[in-house]
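Q: My collaborator sent me two sequences in one message, no labels, and asked for predicted structures for both. Can we handle them in order? The first one she listed is below.
A: Yes, handling them in the order given. First sequence, followed by its structure tokens:
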Amino acid sequence: MADWAERIPGIKALLESRFDRVDVAYKTVNNQPIETAILIPKSLAPDSTSVPVLVDIHGGALVMGANPEPGFIARWAIDLVEQEQAIWVCPSYRLLPESTSGEILDDIDDFWKWVHHPASVSSGLQAAVNTVRPGLTLNLYRVALRGESAGGFLSLQTAFLYPHSKVKVVIAHFPIMYTDLEHDPLPARSKDVPPGSDADKLIDKYLEEVAKKPGQIRTVSPWPEMGEFLFATFGTGRLKSLTGDDERMTLRYAMSRAKSLPPLWVAQGIQDPIVAKEATDEVVAKIREAYPDTPLKYTVEDGEHGLGADLAITDSWVAEGVAFVKKYW
């Protein structure tokens, strides 16, 4: 994570120099807006028509993250948006433990409904773009979806649960958080962290504070905010209990809901200490068996969590994956 923290200033500078940004609420919960960032390349002609869309859902184990999260954004993804002359849409969503995993999935569902609101109404993605670039016309039948880690999981869940998203291709990197796998992707308690440890006390204290403020929600916690809490859940094996027992967090339920899937590009680092390669292998194998007609590119490379973050769009396996995405986007 230290390397990710060090890259934040450079990624922020890239985004500010190459994109115009507007933040818009796509829903409101308990009088608090839940926003999406819309980033429009400065190189995009003001009268462009049929502009494609890349939706990017941030990671952070459903506990932390921002929209977008500069520490985690892959450089090649920035290049892809500009190369395709697309707009980049980065939704926030409610976060654990103030909210439940089911409420997070509800937010993603509502986000997609907002994206596809007709331009004739005052809400929706096209209407939001009209406020800053009235000459741009979006092509909402050319929507690609990308996410890493928890964002990759929510991207897979979009493919399974929300066909109204109309997504043409999904990029899901180190994405597995399903709670019903043979190879459990959520970290178990470390042997070095006994029950009652300082990490447990930190979690318990935070949960006590949350309980005192029912209805409070949190939607944005940029790195390193909540980092200490998140790593405490890894060490104690308590992240799984925070995700809860909502059946929508299981692969079994997801696969029962989808008759078909859009093309998928899944990537996984062999040495990833957070999302085990075996869990991703298991999910990929089950998808291939259940959906044999779905184009699925599975990239496995040496690397840890954040695989390929600093690669360019022309580098090695990224170039192959991007070619796959462009074929269907």
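Q: And the one she listed second?
A: Here it is, processed independently of the first:
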Amino acid sequence: MADVNGLARSLIATDLPRRDGVIQVGGLDLAGLARTYGTPLFVYDAARMRRAYRDLSQAVAGFAEVDYSVKANPRPAVIRVFAEEGAGAEIASGAEYEAALTAGLSPERILFAGPGKSDADIERVIAGGIGEIHLENFEEMGRVAAAAERYGQRASVAIRVNPGPDAQGGAMRMGGKPSPFGFDEEDLEAVVDRIVAEDRLRLTGLHLFAGTQGLSASILLGQWAYGLRLASRVAARIGRALDTVDLGGGLGIPYFAGDGPLDLDAIHSGIPALRAMVAEDPRLATARIVLEPGRYLVGPAGLYVAQVRAVKRSRGQLFAITDGGMHHHLAASGNLGQIVKRDYPVVAVVEAAGAVSMPWTVVGPLCTPLDILARAAFLPQLASGDLVAVLQSGAYGLTASPTGFLSHPLPAEILVDGGKATVIGP
């Protein structure tokens, strides 16, 4: 049986030191932040974001550049942290486009994906400029061409491919089956020919996203090699080099008991073989190869802090009822795509050395049995007024949650950077 509290202990030991028993984030006292800004509260550590970005960039150096997938956390202040490191942005809506611009990115550093782009969003990015629009269906192809015609432009587009069954997926496989995302691989040549026939479109790239929450270096390396082979097919079909090969994101982080971190050393060891593939095809050698993770870069940098309102024992089970819950952090409750509901790492914000831990069910204030933040978190004795924190909460948190449910107030979002806390949302 996996050590249910081992991941939380490991994360505290490596990234979240305690001072006098209180978790520190970026050198600031987490309990003090909760007193200042109230609870529930999201806290993000900019230094940890930068470290994740630099570590990944170094692991894939000489092969790929790293952009940021805005959907993971779309706050402009978060996007700006990565933009300052040199990242571009992958967006999926007009609002995310505006957030990327607000963060200081130039339009040509933005890639626009998503299976259901609105006419208004297509018009906005063509009028304002965009690095590339990733086409996902034939109707969208026509709408982008029509918008480009109205603005007297030739739009740069990429084909998003729904890969065949030979592509390996991650924890949430996104290829090899019927999908709303992208064009099926078996139709690739026909799609290329349709784009080439559109005077207002210029085919500049390919986008492959085979899976998400991948913790296996070998699977990720295999996906990237598969994407390079598809890119070679496209380049051969059009008879010229591609500008961009977007190999997607999909890099995972440990959330649950038994999860281990992605091995960047193993990723780095596999890069020479991928570089050799690129060098063998002159039509790929000049392409900008892109990875665009979101969760991997921002997830470990975030904590969701809630205050205990009441404790109770029901038929032998301990419950901590808090002011935070699934309305702010749906993923932590296990209701954002999880089939088997498992606990994110949950810790006490203040814990005395040597405190005895016991299993707690940590729940929120909502009138639904789904509002559970942990089913068996090993925590010290809790009382009303104590604080708990859900770790690994920087990605798919507040903006991926049903914030209007039961009309509770929104939590503040705080960015800690250089020893200073700044409110960045909502």
